[in-house]
Amino acid sequence: MSDYIISQIYPSDILANKQINELLLAEGIRRDANLDYTCGMYDDEMNIIATGSCFGNTLRCIAVSSAHQGEGLMNQIVTHLISVQFERGNTHLFLYTKCNSAKFFGDRGFYEIARIDGQIVFMENRKTGFSAYLERLKKESEQSEVMKRFTSDNTQKDLRIAALVMNANPFTLGHQYLVEKAAAESDILHLFIVSEDQSLVPFSVRKQLVLEGTAHLNNIIYHESGPYIISNATFPSYFQKDADAVMESHANLDLTIFVRIAQALGINCRYVGEEPNSQVTGIYNKIMAKKLPENKILCTIVPQKEANGAVISASTVRTALKNDNIELLKTLVPETTLHYFQSKDAVPVIAKIKAAEHVVHH
């Protein structure tokens, strides 16, 4: 066991951050854009020889200088990060790692959720975390009024059971159109609302707007996505070679997890919006259209609803809010969403959108 010192590294510490960037680069890792805590381990000459970071309840960007590997420094960094997370009140932790590092983390109390061979492993520190999540989804389904309407004469294999995963940042007429189409063409629709709170519109508001904007449909079972359906905003990019590789890994990992959710709930169809202006969604949908049918799940890609000669997107809605363009907003969102943004409850959310440098996501 070394006597090296581990210290928090603040964004203002230019020299330390330069050393961390160089260390990560030397170990084939790019500094992740989403970090809210970083530490460095110093040797006797105040050189940083190991580092690790956190974002939310995940561990990220962990590396040890090649000159010091084999000294147990990685274990010390991970122990330190777990301690920091516990002090924050985060006891359910997640990490993404290269396939050849999975055993190391497995020996330290992390369990594999899903793996894409040759690319990435998604892990958590609860042995039954994901299985408990699947049980919760099944219980929500079984106890729903929607499921209770189907008698024993209608076995699940006779039903079209669809799924939609939606961030709704915020809920637009495009989202509403997609939900209405999926609901109309299905016996049961499982609607997953991304609960990760990394969007300009907070989860509590996004969920409220989805529920209000779909209240006229009577065959939807609503679920919070929990930590297992990962958003584009927080999927790690730090050990993948380029943006396309990141998106491919994200899509493959997310679909591996979704297939297990689908098997638990009897889902046999997934609906997605086309979003032609989004490179991320384009790559994701292409992979989904190939992978889902391989697992006996139909993939239905729905062209987006248009308004004012262009597709309706949440980015356009956020831009309208940022620019106080209420007339444009009225053409893009349902009455329920419009009512919210014209209420005093929306004042802090609109202020956050106006303060954001970028409200358009690609």
Describe the protein.
- The chain has a seven-stranded mixed beta sheet, with helices on both faces. The protein has a five-stranded parallel beta sheet with strand order 10-9-8-11-12, sandwiched between helices. Strands 13-14 form a two-stranded antiparallel ribbon.
- The model has no long low-confidence stretch (mean pLDDT 90).
- By secondary structure, it is of the alpha/beta class.
- Strand 6 (111-116) and strand 7 (120-124) form a beta hairpin.
- The radius of gyration is 22 Å and the shape is globular.
- Helix content is 40%, strand content 20%.
Supply database-style keywords:
362 residues; single chain; 14 strands; 13 helices; seven-stranded mixed β-sheet; 20% strand; globular; alpha/beta
**Number of separate helices:** 13
* Mean pLDDT across all amino acids: 90
Give a short account of the largest sheet. 7 strands, mixed
Number of strands: 14
